[in-house]
Amino acid sequence: MSPVPGYDVVVAGGGPAGCAAALALVRAGRSVLLADAGTGPPKAGEALVSVGRLLLADLGIEEPVLGSGHLPCHGNLSAWGSAELHAVDSIDDPYGHGWHLDRPLFDRRLREAARAGGAEVAEHTGVRCPSRQPDGTWRLALRDRAAGRERTVRCRWVVDATGRGAAIAVRSGARRRTGDRLTAFHLTLDPAPQATADGRSLVESDQDGWWYTALLPSRHRMVAYFTDPDLPAAARGAERFHDRLLATRHISRRVRPHGLTVLQPPRRAPAHSAHLDRVHGEGWTAAGDAAAAFDPLSSQGILTALYTGLSAGQAVHARLHGDPVALPDYAAKVATARAAYQHGHQAVHAQETRWADRPFWARRQRHTRPNPHPTKGETPT
After folding, report:
1. How far apart are CA 62 and CA 55, in angstroms?
2. Residue 161: is it exposed, middle or buried by C-beta count within 10 angstroms (0-12/13-18/19+)?
3. pLDDT per residue over 39-67, tens digit each?
4. In this structure, is the dihedral angle defined by the CA atoms of residues 42, 45, 46 and 51, taken in order, positive or negative?
5. pLDDT at position 350, please?
6. Around Cβ 77, how many Cβ atoms within 10 Å?
């Protein structure tokens, strides 16, 4: 019988959080297997805020990951709290512009960086049947979907970067807490016949939720509506979505050049706030959306994934080195990030006072005191 391969750490999930964790660990000298299942619908329309370049620089991969293929985002527009459009320009940002990401390219480059750094990267491979052994190690089954085969590995620690499902953490006894039921309904429109140079994102609120649109690096346009699934606005038919889209004041102007004569039914995706009741346990640590998932209005998803992934990798290395407070310190970092997000989330929703009696807004403002006179220039990000 051939010996079971052993690693210091297996990272489950090949997105930004998993790659950041793997990079931090291999740079610390740990043997790492990064398993990327590659399941689920392709992701599009996601952005990285400007400060994200600092985290990529800390990982030593800013240039190869952001060097080309993404669309610079030089500002954000919003109609929030009033029908008027307000702008925030990246010229005022000390870190420069952000990016509308080609998300598959972004993730692929992150995995390439992890491989180049010394991690073993298993593409199209899911982590199954995690089993804690009497000696404190893990025994894991790795299922290669492309090859149709399975192998078994052992490791000292597991990083759960499997996304909102937090598959390993939940299996290990952690509980998922959800803060709301926000759901995204989204479409990707064809490129406009005449290209536009305006790469700014746009947010517009309405009585039952809010809209978002942005150009993609491919020059297609992403348009999404965010609401709660139990509200009438969540009807999924293409005609209902089309009518609501045309009723917007600003979003409709951006999307008309891309053609609206034939629309497919929008896709549906979870967008709710959620977190684990604990982000580490016996032999495991959660990062990214598995640890804490934020409302897309914050534009903090990719940034938080990189931050928690890097921090989790550093904490796991320190814990394996014998540091007893490394993981509690990591949990405190995640809690601080969540508290900052919740404060900002409440403040932004409190600015929209026009529909305080509507269920969507009442649910998000019940713990806030609406401010009818927000600071000039303070808009959703």
Report:
1. 8
2. buried
3. 876 777 799 999 999 999 999 999 999 99
4. positive
5. 95
6. 20
